[in-house]
Amino acid sequence: MEGDLVAFGRCILHGPDAVGSVTSGGTESCLLAVKAARDTWRERHPGSTARPRIVLPQTAHAAFHKAAHYLDLDVDVFPVDPTTGTLPAGDLTRRLDEATALVVVSAPAYPHGVVDPVADVAGAAQEAGVPCHVDACVGGLVLPFWEAAGGGPVPPWDFRVPGVSSISADLHKYGYAPKGSSLLLFADRGLDRARYFALTGWPGYPVVNPTVLGSRSATSLAAAWAVTTALGEQGYVALTRRLVAATAAVRACVDGIVGLRVLGDPVGSLVAVVADEDVPEAEQVDPHLWAGAVQRRGFVLQGQPALTQSDGTGIPRSTHLTVTPVTAGLIDELTEALAGGAEDVRGQAGAGSGGGPDAAGGGVVGSAGLPDPAELARAAREDGELDLTAVLALIETLPREVSARMLVDFMAEFTEPRVESP
User: Fold this and answer.
1) Which residues have a Cβ under 8 Å from the Cβ of 332 and sit 6 or more positions away?
2) pLDDT, one tens digit for every residue, the chain (422 residues)
3) What are phi and psi of 206, to 5 degrees?
4) Whose CB among 120, 140, 295, 327 lies 3.0–4.6 Å from 246's, allowing a Cys bridge?
């Protein structure tokens, strides 16, 4: 079954000689791509005391930061254009040097749905002798069918692009399989071998692991095999056709809402919506307040906090929509909620527009003037709800390392078993 899935990936990603494996998800696929690049870099630099690093755009997925944290690599984060989400390829590729173990691009990048300039980056990486990984965890089973489904041309991004050394593509996203399955494919067999872990220097059985996990369940693998086999390429084209229509309807709806705009020119089924600052302030719509209003009308959208990049430019706060084939069957209700939600909050200032942590704390504030994560967790468990608008405003207000620690404290408290008094 794994061989069949890898063969399916070879076909749709246009890598007839690609090799790889099925992993437990996008995070593991990304981590293994980083491991393979790190180990290959070490082989090429024997005895070096330098720390290898990953070069990636600001919009690259958090999984690569996680991989670098686990595998002890530095991360060089390059800013993107805050108004379009696009990556200046020439500026990024000038950062490639002897310490670069891997460069990462996305097809598309999750935050804004924009496809990075894969051909430009991969070509420069090839000249520099640096592997280039394309993170297509979201788009890997959408973009191959997008044009055939009527969605228009897609910039080059797969194994047909010289210099692309590996691709991750999740089967549990737009492959429509249950969670727990992703594809990781390599164009270079030497790089592929570097994802393995093998050990014979212990008194137990010989160990060779193609993925992070030792024991792997066949459940998700079998489910992914069954879904892809049942659908086939034509089935995916048909589902993508529903995606194309639904995404076009969502974008048309947003384009018709005064005070909001789609950020950049996304390719595929991900859309990020920001406030349109070209209209008077009284007509603007805060995207986070909008998400809250739309949720009250029955649809859950995902808020994304504003971020100041290393060059001082600011990526605006946004609300993210992931369109699926199911959306096509609810498009009238959804667009009505999107338009109505905007009217509900038009001209209102968002929680992070001033007032500091106290204003964002939802009333559960500790002695330092910050929300108490334990109290937030207890309130969320009792009420079954969490004010995500306030959480996002808090992230925007506090230093990122502080808000990250608070999230850990919140989650640890939230998931701790409740102890009833005797």
Assistant:
1) none
2) 999 999 999 999 999 999 999 999 999 999 999 999 999 999 999 988 889 999 999 999 999 999 999 999 999 999 999 999 999 999 999 999 999 999 999 999 999 999 999 999 999 999 999 999 999 999 999 999 999 999 999 999 999 999 999 999 999 999 999 999 999 999 999 999 999 999 999 999 999 999 999 988 899 999 999 999 999 999 999 999 999 999 999 999 999 999 999 999 999 999 999 999 999 999 999 999 999 999 999 999 999 999 999 999 999 999 999 999 999 999 999 999 999 999 999 999 864 443 333 333 333 444 445 677 778 788 888 887 777 888 888 899 899 999 999 889 888 988 888 776 55
3) -65, 135
4) 327
**β-pair partners for 74:** 53
Q: Which pair of tokens denotes residue 40? A: 């290959």
Strands 260-262 and 207-209: unpaired
Q: Report the 10 Å Cβ neighbour count for 262.
A: 19
Contact 132, 163 (CB under 8 A): yes
User: Tokens in use for 367?
Assistant: 């002695």
Task: State the DSSP string of 109-125.
Answer: -TTT-PPP-HHHHHHHH
Cα 417 from Cα 134, distance rounded (Å): 40
